[in-house]
Amino acid sequence: MSEADVKSWINGDESAKRMLDRVLTSRPSFSLPPPLHRIPLRVANVVEIAGPSPSAKTQILTQTAVSCVLPKVWNGVHYGGLGRPVLYIDLDCRFDVLRLVEMLRHRIVQVNGCSSTAGNEEILKLSMRQFSYIRCYDSFELLATLKTLHHRLQKEKESNGIGGHLLMIDSIGAFHWVDRASTTLPLGGKNRKCLSLQNVLEIVVEDLRKLLLIHPMLVIVTKTAIVGTTGNEVKRNFKRWPSSGTPDTSSELERLQKPYFREYMPSIWQSFVTHRILVQGSDDHLAMPKSQENDLAYVSEWLLPRLNILDKFVVRDAGVFLVS
């Protein structure tokens, strides 16, 4: 922004409608596939997908990446994607690129209705060029990656004319317990300071904040969560019932069996997250159309902001599908 633009912005007077139009144009909201579809998200939001392992967290990331890298319209055909780049940082080191390609093919074939055309392969290659993948094996590689992301994104923006749109980290707590077992994390050299677990997360959050100021993106991270039921706390929370009446055993049992989410990440990370969704496996097995066997169901619930809605979904070859 030039000096003249800054002065005009400071001295200017705009209506609320014009301000909203400007903000929505510069930072538009966009909808993501289920189960992230309940809340409109914008760049600079940090969405945490928490859940025990396995709970389809990586599958949700993969489907979201497919919706982002696919073009909205190509050669007059509407594919419904965003046509924007995705940067995927894999800390679990278990990402399956063939699964990404498989889901992309399903989406393309679903639109074109044919699986053996040259156009399908061309749009597949076009979409895959929008996907960048980085693998980190420890906290030091993660810190080094974050330090170089600005240069990487700037270079891609100059070459492609478009900057990053979606940053994915799978999974942010991958090194938490290893780092916690070490009292200090030496950076190397006698005169170099050592990092604690708290320091590592502080640097990660600081680098991400700086990155989002220069390259506004939506950040989606997964985190393995510790989920239990308050039924485990029955002995601790036991209280004697009055002799004059009997408790409502059904409501009390429901309260005791209600799942809870136990946070283990430092407060610096918790304050950085703007949205959080909890996903868990369900005991239900659902028979889907054209399926030879029942599919394992999963349940998602928004914790931040709190929504009193539970979405049930299954994972098929073509991706994640909501079920009623």
From TrEMBL:
CDD domains from the UniProt entry: XRCC2 (cd19490)
Gene3D superfamilies: P-loop containing nucleotide triphosphate hydrolases (3.40.50.300)
Origin: domain of life: Eukaryota
Gene Ontology biological process terms, A to Z: double-strand break repair via homologous recombination
GO CC terms in record: Rad51B-Rad51C-Rad51D-XRCC2 complex; replication fork
InterPro entries reported for this sequence: P-loop_NTPase, RecA_ATP-bd, XRCC2
Domain (RecA family profile) ranges: 21-226
GO molecular function term, any single one: ATP-dependent DNA damage sensor activity
Name of the protein: DNA repair protein XRCC2 homolog isoform X1
The species this protein was found in: Rhodamnia argentea
